[in-house]
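request received
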Amino acid sequence: MSRLIVVSNRVNPPSAAPGAGSQGGLAVAIAAALREYRGVWFGWSGQRVAEFSGALHMQRVAGVTTATVDLEEQDVDEYYNGYANKTLWPLFHYRIDLTEYDRTFGTGYARVNCRFAEALLPLIEPDDLIWVHDYHLIPLASELRRRGIENRIGFFLHIPWPPRRLLATLPHHDELVAGLFDYDLLGFQTGEWLESFREYAEQELGATLGPDGSVAAAGRRTRARAFPIGIDAAEFAEAGRSAAASAMHERMRRSIEGRQMIVGVDRLDYSKGLEERFAGYERLLANDPARLGRVFMLQIAPPTREEIGSYQEIRGRLDALSGRINGAYADVDWVPIRYVNQGYSREELAGIYRAAALGLVTPLRDGMNLVAKEYVAAQDPKDPGALVLSRFAGAALQMGEAILVNPYSQEEIADAIARGLDMPKAERKRRWEAMMHAVQREDVVAWRNDFVNDLEAVRRTPRKGG
Ligand code: ADQ
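response:
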């Protein structure tokens, strides 16, 4: 079996102490992949240094070997906060209004990808499979090929692929996308994003599309497929059976005091539709005063990317909005929104999800959305909660038994919440069973096996002239 090298911007090895702090969906997925393969996880350490040295920090944590490099302040500004999170993230989430185009961002992005390739080079053995993750690292394969690497290299995009006409607003978009043709395999979350990519390749790059998923342009050929990511369903079920989960479930049960709890769990990001969600919930309270005092919403939203202006602004707006709604509707013994800005361990999250009558997952645009899957996995099979899910999350394609909504519409959100809260138990169980089946079948193990097997099956013909 080939060795696996995983490359992602941040490296989050599995925590040595179970339950100590939170781990994002990607971190859990990658740790699960590396547990089985004799591999290395490479990326940025998260540390900033005065001068880039390329020195590798090697570590072994809970069976996973990690190799990280530090970056300079300017690298972090231009590559991470700049091109990745001020340019590509908003653009790929259809937020052209928030997208910043600055030439220095592009330069920094190219420089860091070049630095990553240099640092990674000594770790690569001839048979290794290299699996690169996400929008921070699109040019990495080209940088490795330029240095003579002929290994099989795959790329997985965790976020949506935008429509062609949106992507065309990015200066040098064609150069960026051309870099993807140095990968042997490209993975997208859903058929919809895959289609957008193929259309872009055909229309903008004159690519030829093959029936087997191959996409060829400018003398290079890659293969593109949808690989919907899942959660580690077995691990999450185990987290749900832990003492920490039970303790949290009991704590929630006591504080719910017979009311119905609606739960939302998201990184504090404008793509998650939190303002629209609060406004939709407010509409419910305004439409249906009988629910006052009988329902409340718990929104957990730890801040992310706090150095970026658009994130500071949305945080300010959410503080104001939750404050306004609570001010308008709260009573001496009840508040409609419990708005919490901290993270919780996976065990605690499992206990919180289970205590809720309804999960509210309404991103405006989301590559997949693992919270929807975690919510389903955490439910009590005998009395599961209902799920309201945005039709613009990749997860909606696999979870058609959720109550699907247009997250931009306050009325639809309000109606969907009411419907979910009032749904008879038999219907909740029927819908939950169908969703749970999909969550278990299309879990992170299937996702990883699928991708790695496809990558392993690639036959490479060495390129001429790099
Ligand atoms: P994210 O945008 O981070 O991921 P998501 O898929 O929902 O979105 O994953 C979030 C993860 O963070 C979940 O595992 C969740 O439990 C965890 N999390 C969120 N809030 C938390 C909190 N308060 N405490 C603890 N944990 C918390 C990106 C893409 C998604 C895609 C994933 C995986 O944007 O569309 O599904 O990658 O590919």
